């Protein structure tokens, strides 16, 4: 029961993080948002890692894997994730993020020689069907959740995010299995990601004309706290107390949990296709996770 509550809590905090990012869309650019979010995440996770004495658990080869994981899951995936929320809105981005599960399965099959069962193939099909249904059948979304750019741009960014997230998890898996403390792993990944976003200041396109307003910085801080710090911590705690398949399934309910949040903030209920499509996508993730 504890693992179930922790997993659902992680999914809820991931949803809250996406809503916080959407709140500053159009006012804080993607590169600036990434710098602040990664910086805050690093301070929080590094502080926690220091308190629990986790730095001693990292060996050079594990650091290398976590650095590669950061390149795929933070530097690439965070950039495209934030851009996808700006372009397509939080609901569509949350749906597309569920593609990380089938991409992880396919990458495990391609690079690790893992088997690909009929149940997993069926799960991939359900996820794709649910995403297409939810995106194409929603004709009149609220302005706060309406794509601000052509829909295909948000879809491409969401797919890249899912590939990057799946690859980052694949690369981090051996290090975590070897005993790296979770807060320390997140501190390394977010710290390297923060250095990446800072290095981009060398290029004019990544520079912002001004610092974020105090109200915007509050939302950026909330997105870092809920997404990288609290959400990941809850998920790690859930994995320590429950079955991996069940935890993975419950934490993937973000596409459903984000819908009432959109309803609450916009005062307008998402359409029935959005609920059905999100449910089908989550069912597909469950099929993949529980058959692994």
Describe, in plain words, how this protein is organized in 3D:
Helices cover 77% and strands 0% of the residues. It is mostly helical and 292 residues long. The chain has one domain. α1 (2-23) crosses α11, α2 packs antiparallel against α3 (60-88) and α6 (118-136) packs antiparallel against α12. The two termini are 21 Å apart.
Q: Which structural traits does this protein have?
A:
292 residues; globular; mainly alpha; 12 helices
Summarize the structure.
The chain is an all-alpha fold.
Ranges with pLDDT <50 over ≥5 residues? Answer: none
Mean pLDDT over the residues: 82
Shape: globular
The total strand number stands at 0
Question: What is the structural class?
Answer: mainly alpha
Helix content: over 70%
Query: Taking Cα atoms only, what radius of gyration do you get, to the nearest Å?
Result: 18 Å
Order of helices and strands: HHHHHHHHHHHH
Strand content: under 5%
The N- to C-terminal Cα distance equals 21 Å
Number of domains: 1
Assembly status = single chain
Largest sheet: none
Secondary-structure blueprint of this entry?
Layout (H helix, E strand, L loop, with lengths): L1 H22 L6 H22 L8 H29 L1 H8 L2 H12 L6 H19 L14 H27 L4 H18 L14 H28 L2 H8 L2 H13 L5 H19 L2
Helix pairs in contact: 1-9, 1-10, 1-11, 2-3, 2-8, 2-9, 3-4, 3-7, 3-8, 4-7, 4-11, 5-7, 6-12, 8-9, 10-12
